[in-house]
Amino acid sequence: MALDTDTKRTSASPSQLKQLGRALVQWIQGAGPSASSRLAQLILIANLLALGVLIFGMLALTETRRGLVNAKLDSLTAQGELIANVLAEGAAVGIPTPALNNADARALLRQLYVPEESRVLLFDKSGETIADSHLLADVFETQMLPPPEGETPDLAAAARDLPTRILDGFSSILSSPEERAALDRNLQEEVRQVIAGERIAGVRRDAEGRRVVSVSIPIQPVRAVIGVVTMESYDLDSLIEAERRALLPFMLIAILVTAMSSLALTVFIARPIRRLARAADEARRAGGRRVSMPDLRSRRDEIGELGVSLSEMTEALYDRLDAIERFAADVAHELKNPLTSIRSAAEILPRAKDDERRERLLAVIANDVSRLDRLITDISRASRVDAELAREDVEPFDLCGLLSELADTYNEADGREVELVFTNEVRNGLVMGREVPLGQVFRNLIDNGLTFSPQGGRIEIFARRGHRHGKASLVITVEDEGPGIPEENLETIFERFYTERPRGAAFGSHSGLGLAISRQIVKAHGGQIYAVNRTGSEGQVLGARFTVDLPAAPAT
């Protein structure tokens, strides 16, 4: 039972194997270059051109070599059959059991014409050599003797022979199994097979390792084999060497194509990447000074996309640095005002002569301290918005449900004399976003409306469908019955530390960061926020309207 349990635990089910196979296929597809990749196409074409030239040359050489060998075999076979027939007629003796007359065979062979590049060998029925055309014609072969003992071999000759040996080894790999077996056959085996009744034709190696085109034909007056005629040709190596020299132009063209493709890849890939790398290093060492990236927008490949992405990234970083500098300057300016007020009150306080004046100065100091605390709190919250948005995951949530809960919460609060009314005109109020930051946006808008709305007024919130950039969106409007916004400040109110308070409101009770933070959050969600004034039929201002347009969650 233990073994069965272990086997069940370790063996994978067919469904798991299918899932593993699909995951492997998806990984391979993701790791491979896209079919639309311009760089992948360029690299593939450049490499295939050089490879194609070599393949074409090798195929051409292989076909030419086979054609030469076949033509040589046909020629030797015709000559061998002619010689075998002549010897069967003129050198066969004995009836009914014929035999080969060695003297007559040598005499007939001496009278026959044998091409200079060929050699004829005659063997009797036992496989013994009867005649050799080279010996009969007084043709002698020269052979290099090995170097004396102790003498170093000729390294130059070995180096010259090395390419030939390498090419021969490569050719043997491309040869068929029958051709490789024929190369290993020796003359004695060939003669024995012919005496047994076969015909042998092919390429083999002699004792010195040279390729020999050999044809062995039996001598048969009737049916009995009385001898063997072997035709040999030794010029195959020289023909192959000539073919290899003919392949040299293909090799030079392949080298040229490879060099040109390498140069093209260097010009079109390596050089632009080097320019981008140098520009990135220069931007790193610039210390905040703007450095322009190389303009590669004209390229329609991945290098162009990389250049555009780097350019846009550096511009975004520079804009962020500028925004940080402006934010720091604005913070310093806003903090300086209450600090100046506190310092003035503190300097005057020791010289105050009555308690009433001292109490007013202490109240000013306390108010400015509260203002500082509010400013520091809002500044800290504004500086954390981007980091919090980057850490939180985006997921669909019901924004209309959140707005309904906010309206109920504000209406149930004590001391509220302004009514909140939420009107939902959509069935599906899902948006892609983060619930807590977006809830802060609408709380800021509602608080802003409560500040400007008169006693007994209404704040109306509407939710409806919209379209933005060709995609479905959810449009939320927050309308109040306040005095409205000056036309010249409809955009300014979203800037940091801008405040426009109604009469009677305490100075410094607001930091001016609420709407700026709201725009920051909405932009991070891919939406937009803007403000307009509500007007009546006669053009009078009825209040302010804030509109938030957010991408809707895809339908499931």
Strand and helix layout:
Elements: H1 2-10, H2 14-31, H3 38-90, E1 92-93, E2 99-100, H4 102-111, E3 118-124, E4 129-132, H5 133-136, H6 155-174, H7 177-183, H8 187-195, E5 200-205, E6 211-219, E7 227-233, H9 236-285, H10 302-348, H11 355-391, E8 395-398, H12 399-412, E9 419-424, E10 430-433, H13 435-452, E11 458-468, E12 471-479, H14 514-524, E13 528-535, E14 541-551
Parallel strand pairs: 9-11
Antiparallel strand pairs: 1-2, 3-4, 3-7, 5-6, 6-7, 8-10, 11-12, 12-14, 13-14
Description:
The structure is a single chain. By secondary structure, the chain is an alpha+beta fold. It folds into 3 domains: 35-135 and 161-286, Beta-Lactamase (2-Layer Sandwich), CATH 3.30.450; 287-320, no CATH class; 392-556, Heat Shock Protein 90. 55% of the residues lie in helices and 16% in strands. The strands form 4 sheets. The chain has a 5-stranded antiparallel beta sheet with strand order 4-3-7-6-5, with helices on both faces. A 5-stranded mixed beta sheet has the order 9-11-12-14-13. α9 runs parallel beside α10 and α13 (435-452) runs antiparallel to α14 (514-524). It starts with a helix and ends in a 5-residue tail after the last strand. The model is unreliable at 1-11, 28-35 and 502-509 (pLDDT under 50).
Q: What is the percent of helical residues? A: 55-70%
Distance between the termini: 47 Å
Spatial strand arrangement across the major sheet: 4-3-7-6-5
Domain module count: 3
Poorly predicted sequence stretches spanning 5 or more consecutive residues: 1-11, 28-35, 502-509
User: In total, how many beta strands?
Assistant: 14
